[in-house]
TrEMBL record:
Pfam family, one: DSBA
Organism expressing this protein natively: Pseudomonas cuatrocienegasensis
Domain DSBA-like thioredoxin: 8-185
Taxonomic superkingdom: Bacteria
Name of this protein: DSBA-like thioredoxin domain-containing protein
Length: 212
């Protein structure tokens, strides 16, 4: 029986970055379709200035994520991203980039998300910059998505809004708090899975999905 796992995320969410190794393994579960949906949680009204207090909070939280997941939050990220007072905490541009990928090469959205996260958290690059995001997509061979992002047309903006609206409606419908959130659809039924398993015991989560 086919199953769909909807992964609700934000590209600037540290816990979503921490979940990427487990997510990679989930892609290999037989009979499971993985659907990525950006929530826009840290875009628009959810964006904010990167002041010293927020940067310190983010770094402290990132270290906790690193301890639990083994994911790298580099000094380059701390110095070039968190210490940059001109760079806002705004996932809007990265979310739009991922929608450009969804529009042109949907099977590559995971690859694009991973590359954007590595660019930010390891390389210390500004993924709130459209030019930086276009370069990342080009490096992945996603030239159509890069061209779309370089000159966004109304269709891309509409798609982006529709994707984030769908994700937000799902969060509300299932009273899910924050991201990452996992929704499993099987036999016509949809349920929320405990996303902490992405960090604590991904093997058990994979077994649960395989048996669902």
């Amino acid at each position: 029986m086919s199953k769909t796992l909807q992964y609700l995320y934000d590209p600037l969410c540290g816990w979503c970055y921490g979940a990427m190794p487990a997510l990679a393994k989930l892609q290999g579960v037989a009979g499971l379709t993985l659907e990525l949906l950006p929530t826009g949680l840290f875009a628009g009204q959810g964006a904010r200035a990167m002041d010293a207090d927020f940067a310190n909070f983010a770094w402290s939280n990132d270290q906790r994520i690193a301890t639990q997941t083994g994911q790298d939050f580099s000094e380059a990220y701390r110095r070039l991203v968190l210490a940059d007072r001109q760079q806002r905490f705004d996932s809007g541009p990265a979310t739009l980039a991922l929608s450009a990928v969804a529009a042109t090469a949907p099977a590559r959205e995971y690859d694009a998300l991973k590359a954007i996260q590595l660019a930010r958290y390891v390389e210390g690059r500004d993924v709130t910059s459209a030019a930086s995001l276009v370069a990342i997509l080009h490096a992945l061979g996603l030239s159509d998505a890069a061209a779309l992002l370089a000159h966004p047309e109304p269709a891309l903006v509409s798609l982006n809004k529709a994707r984030t609206r769908q994700a937000q409606e799902l969060l509300q419908a299932f009273a899910a708090r924050g991201v990452p959130t996992l929704l499993l659809e099987s036999a016509g039924q949809r349920s929320v899975l405990n996303s902490s398993a992405l960090f604590a015991n991904p093997a058990a989560l994979i077994e649960q999905l395989a048996a669902a």
